[in-house]
Amino acid sequence: MARGLDNLSDFSIHDPYRIIIPFLYPDVTDNDYQKYLTQDRELVRSLRQDYSQNVPRTDYENDNAKAYMLAYFPYYVETLYHLLEELAELKSLPILREDNIMNIVILGGGPMPELLGIASHVKKRYPRVEKLKVSVFDINDNVWKKYRHGCTVKLLEKYGNIKMMLSEHHCDFLSCEICQEKVCKQVLGEADLVVMQNCISDIIGERDRRGSKASFSFAEIFKSLRFGALFLLCDLDYSKTNEALRECVSIVEGTELGTVLLKSIEERFEYRPNFVYPTILNSIFDGSDHLMQKNKTKSKFIICQREDWVTKFMRQQSTNWPIVIRSLESLQYCNRYTVFSNNHIERIDVFYKKNGLVSNVKTLDQGNIFSDINGLRENLIGKCIHESAPVNAPLIDPEFQERAKRMNFTIEEIRRFPYMQRYIIRDSKHNTGVVDQYFNGLGRPTRRIGQLGMSTSEHILSDMMKIFEEA
Predict the structure, then answer these.
(1) Helix and strand tally (H, E) in the chain?
(2) Which domains does the chain have, with CATH numbers?
(3) Mind listing the pLDDT tens digit for each residue in 136-190?
């Protein structure tokens, strides 16, 4: 199934090939382009054959990068523009740290066609933004640099005409502990918008090639984001990428780390790109096998926002208008939320005790947004302020989930208590085991206790302890 063909926001006709073709074929006259394009026909055919696999494994060190610029770059300029515009219609815009700068992180960005769509969206929706601070991470960073600077940077003035400060990083997502790398953590922690377009399929393909030792954790990246940041994942319609997107949704919806704002996984998001197609490209796209001209771009996607359960609750309690949390300050025994809605600003202090339980809620302003601050206070007092009560980690850790799956265990439920999480797991014979995992004030695991009286089998408890010990 597909959605989005008829109700897309307008994207002005654009001409990326005006820059791409002269860059790829320097010192070639207009009359000779057709000859050189014809010579590169098999490069494009080979790349398309690779992409037609369920999990592509593409080596960009050779001429595949050049083939990508010819066959795919223009088709992925508009995608994030349309998705961000659809999100904007729902009033869920990124929360900026600074009004005149937007911090953008592109993971697996390659030549960054998505940057042009993002810039067009920023120009339309953020008139006060004067500069994009862009950080791109890619395992083939050395390959893509020349295409970014030779094509994307030059095209940017036509897609938003906005200043940009670009930092480029080599990053192997499968061997880099992203939560421990200082550069990654700092950049992600400052981002307003993090995007990953058509990268999940490459990561899965590379992971399969390397074997079981390679792993990638969406949860670790999402945890590293600052409060209010958006994370947009968009990829092609492969079965394994769809499965990966569903897992990401489960992580976000199964924790207090954030909210899924928009998604399209069970049906494709499609649109017809609105760019100028030079007729000389018929030298490549002659209609033969794997060389048909594309007329649609098809994707699956999710858009998440990093936030906490207090914010979610505030959204439900705001009486008149949708709210935006502009900032969160972590003070001693107090979290200060600055809330914006319909040109009103209100600062809410949520106080908590040493054990993490909310003790009081106060407003520093006139209560223009929350007409019933007493009701907000009554509903928050007694609840635990810390995410995942109290661990700043996914409620269901992906690695723990994978180990349980290998042992044919199903995680039935994880119940949250102050400084403790209770894991309830069932095996293939429908035996049930219960283990309590305790944490200290920093959210680090301390001891675990198997609840024999609540379990139906001592054997399953023993196996559950093995899963924890592997962590």
Answers:
(1) 16, 16
(2) 2-306 (3.40.50.150), 309-380 (3.10.450), 398-470 (3.30.310.240)
(3) 999 899 999 999 999 999 999 889 889 999 999 988 877 665 444 556 778 888 8
